[in-house]
Structures are given as structure tokens and as C-alpha cells.
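From: lab user (bench 3)
To: helpdesk
Subject: output format question, protein + beta-D-glucopyranose

Hello, I'm new to running complex predictions and I'm not sure whether the block I got back is the full result or only part of it. Here's what I submitted:
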Amino acid sequence: MKALVVKPGNVGVQLKNVDLKVENKIKIKTLYNGICGTDREIVNNKLPFTRPEKGEELILGHEALGVIEEVPENSNFKVGDVVAPMVRRPGNCLLCKIGRQDYCTDGNFVEAGIRGRDGFMREYFYEDEEFLISVDKEIGEIGALVEPTKNVMKMVEVFNHLKGRTLWDCADSTLNCKGAWVFGTGSEGVLSSLVFKSIGFEVTIVNRHPLPENIMEIIKKNGIKFFDSSTNMWNEGIRENPMDLAIDAAGSADVFIQAIENINYNGIIIMFGTAGTGKIDNGTFITKIVDKNLTIAGVEDGSKNHYIQAAKFLSEYGRKYSMDDLITAKIKPEETWIFNEKPKDEIKSIIDWSL
Ligand code: BGC
Ligand code: ZN
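Helpdesk reply: Thanks, we reran it on our side. This is the complete output you should expect:
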């Protein structure tokens, strides 16, 4: 079968034939693969922790939607079911043993298409059923967003833990008086905005440049504000929507500093971008972290429950509003330029294996 293959430690990606024999597993035909920053970092040799499953090569791809073609006896799934596979597989620690490999403590976990396990950018893949999530067929290609959305569901779980540090909710018990600022306008940024809006926050999405029209439209349609951080009008922005929660989907030191500067007392900062850039060279930010009683949390990956919540959110939201405009490009597997050139209007580009 054809697969998109990288050689960790090197730049580049290639569509080539791979030979795989697997028995007694569910066979899934790939419909779509989402492309994200992690994939681009791997292809450009910028993600320090990427590594092959065996040998020198790794099949790329951790975001997938597929349809079941063959099931072993006694499976709870049936041929024709649409599913999304989980990225991270357990190591040996206690948390891995209870399905919380997203909090693995011994580093022995593997991640499909990222580190130590072949990924899903191929015509077929084979899985055990415990790592598959059922996805509503009706939402079509939006189902390809289950994997990135599960990260947002984990952020919600983390936020709910952290807010318990003090009295955080509004006087009427909602979050309607609270502002969330999301840094980054890729799929993770847009999906976080939608999810945190849906739990009650007033949401502002931040970018260093004006946004392309299509992204602006989605934001407006969903009642999300936009702030252009190149204008330096932070005071006005913050007056319009106070920052109580900051979500960094960009991984930049500048963003981190901007969040610390502008966030309210008792604020919560969720850091999500893995390939950090920039540097922090001024100690005054430490004073602010302490003086404002800030809580800063790194958040990576998610549990099976987060995938299930993601599939449910996308199904309910996707049936109510059209979400098709979140998929901004559908490309053929051989169009590997997509890993080097991010389209300007990109929210989510997907590989469509039927093209
Ligand atoms: C994936 C996570 C993964 C992380 C780091 C993200 O793109 O969505 O599941 O843990 O990359 O490898
Ligand atoms: Zn991803």
C-alpha cells in the first residue's frame, strides 16, 4: 500500500509503497488525514522527540478518519463503521495502565506518526478496538477533526481542575463574565475558541496579522472576537474582553510574556504548542506570575474520554451549524508541498485518499 514516509533526523517526506502484514486486528481504510503543525515540524526535522517504530523510517500521520473494512470475530465494531484512531499508546507506568497515557510518567509511551509507532497517512491501517473511537457518519470530513479536538477537551478538563484553586466562577455560577484569549489561529486555535465559547467564555482570538477573510467569517459567525496583536492596542483589547484564561496554541515565548502581562489576577495560562520558539530574557515576568497568583499548565495529548467528548462535540455542533468551512483544503496524498507551504487561509488541510 501507499504511505507517506519520513526519516526522523532528516528533512523531507515521500509517498512510497510499504509492505505490512497484520493479523487479528481491525482493518480500516483511511478516508482522511488531517495535517497539523506537528506533521510540518516532523517533515522539517524540527520536532526533537520524533523517532521511528523500527529501522530508520516512520509512517507519518496522527490525525485520521477511516471506515472499517474487516473485523475479527467478536468485535464490537462492524464493517462500515466510521472511526478515529488514538495517537498515544500506553507504556508501563501506573497512569498508562488506567488509560491515562496522556499523563505517562516513564516516557515509555509511543505516538502514531510522531514517536515510536507508524502513523496513519497510508491507504489502510490496522488497530485493536480499544484504540478506536466511533464517529458520526453524518458529519463526513469534519470527523477528521476528532483528534485535534480531543486536545481541546483535555484543556477543558485541566481548566476545570485549576479553577478550583480559588472562587473562579461568576456570581451567577456561569463563566459568562470571564474572558478567554486564544493565541494562534490554526485548527487548534479555532477549535479551542469554539469549545471554550460553548462552555460560556467570551472568547478573543489573537494573531500578529489581520486574518484571512474565511477565518474572520467563522470567528464572527460564532460570536468570537479578534485582536490584532501587531497594533499594540492591548489596553483597549483587554478593556473589551478581560483575559482570565489564556490558551497558547502557538508555542512562542513572546505569547507567553504577552499573556503574563495582560492576564487578570488568579489567571490560568494553558500552554499547548510543543515546538517552543523565542527566548525569555527578562526576570520581571516572574514577579508577575507570583504577584498575580497565576497558574501555568502545560497540556499535551488527551485520554480516550477526550476523544469521545470531541466526537460528540463535533457531531452536535456539526449538525447544528455548518462546520465544513473549517476544512480549508483537500489534497491528494502525493501533494507533499502541503508540508512545506501552509496555505494562507488554512484552518485544517486534509489529505483525501479518494482523490
Ligand atoms: C497531538 C498529541 C501529541 C502531541 C505531541 C499533537 O499534535 O495531537 O496527541 O501528544 O502532538 O507529540
Ligand atoms: Zn496534530
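A quick orientation on your result: The mean pLDDT is 94. Let us know if anything else is unclear.
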